[in-house]
Write a structure and sequence with these properties.
Elements: H1 4-18, H2 29-36, H3 38-62, H4 69-85, H5 91-103, H6 109-134, H7 146-167, H8 170-184, H9 189-206, H10 209-236, H11 243-258, H12 269-280, H13 285-319
Length: 321
């Protein structure tokens, strides 16, 4: 049953999304559609799905090839679907990844968890690189979105590093477990053993340079393919934007998805953030909103929601649940 709070926030997200349209000059939309054409849209849809394949391939490599390429793809896409559907940042999707990886019978839950977290850490590398390269474009936002953008990036980066540190350190995890034991007054020796196994597996995994290099290369391929649609649509409309600015816009929109606001896919918030950045960088308002909707909402969100759902159904049938 959908919680009342979630329903309200979902409706709020839809309202925020719909509020974009009054700022969009509908008379210009047919011209935008004609100038872009069908081929760039088809190519963009394909690139997003190929990007997901490389995302899953990165997990396949870092898991030591214990799960097949097909299962890695189906599980990873299912996790993306869950992340978009359930507004908990990426927690719901990663929990599903661990569960389904365990159900394949190829690895235990502790090992599956260690590979998922290691993969998430590797996936932050291209993100940080794009942010670092795109930070120069922030000078164009002075007096407008410079301070909010910088604050969001700084706070989320610090938060991410803290979460990674805590979730990968046995001492911190044991302290948290001890606190839970005192509160619940229950003995959790089994959980304690699983934490030790997880921490040991994770430590050994992070020492395997070959796995890390292979997964990192896949993460960069995924990032570049995911970024491509916004450039394709901008260039189709004759709008020139430098690579670093585009990388920053894409990275910032990803940040908007990762913040657990309680709205599925952070619909509305994500679009407003991306459109505002495009406008601040000199893109005409109607064009910025149109490109945001077609690239972020249609090409990424709806595309991944549809194919993620298909993969979710397939993998559930495959594991027999």
């Amino acid at each position: 049953m959908v919680k009342k709070g979630t329903l309200i926030l979902t409706l709020l997200g839809i309202i925020l999304f719909l509020l974009l349209f009054p700022a969009l000059d509908l008379k210009k939309v047919p011209a935008y559609v004609e100038r872009i054409g069908l081929l760039p849209v088809v190519i963009s849809f394909l690139l997003i799905n190929i990007g997901v394949f490389f995302y899953s391939l990165g997990w396949y490599f870092i898991s030591g090839r214990k799960i097949s390429v097909l299962d890695s793809f189906l599980i990873s896409y299912s996790a993306l679907f869950m992340n978009l559907l359930i507004p908990t940042g990426s927690t719901s999707g990663e929990a599903l990844r661990v569960y389904l990886a365990g159900k394949t019978g190829k690895m235990g839950n502790s090992e599956a968890l260690s590979t998922v977290i290691a993969h998430r850490i590797v996936m932050t590398v291209p993100f940080l690189v794009c942010i670092a390269l795109g930070i120069s474009s922030l000078s164009k936002l002075a007096g407008n979105l410079f301070i909010p953008s910088l604050m969001a990036i700084t706070l989320i980066s610090i938060g991410t590093l803290l979460i990674v540190k805590i979730s990968t350190t046995e001492k911190y995890l044991m302290s948290i477990l001890s606190l839970i034991e005192r509160i619940t007054k229950k003995n959790m020796d089994r959980m304690r053993n699983e934490i030790k196994e997880y921490a040991e597996t994770f430590s050994n995994l992070m020492k395997d340079r070959r796995r890390l290099v292979e997964s990192t290369l896949c993460s960069f391929a995924n990032w570049l393919l995911d970024m491509a649609p916004i450039f394709i649509y901008l260039w189709s409309l004759g709008i020139q934007i430098d690579l670093f600015s585009g990388a920053f816009i894409y990275s910032f929109s990803i940040l908007m998805v990762l913040i657990p606001l309680g709205i599925p896919g952070n619909t509305g918030v994500r679009e407003w953030a991306m459109a505002s950045l495009l406008i601040a960088m000199g893109v005409e308002k109607s064009a910025a909103i149109f490109i945001t909707i077609i690239s972020s909402t249609v090409t990424v969100f709806l595309n991944e929601l549809l194919f993620g759902f298909i993969c979710y159904i397939i993998i559930l049938k495959k594991v027999g649940k």
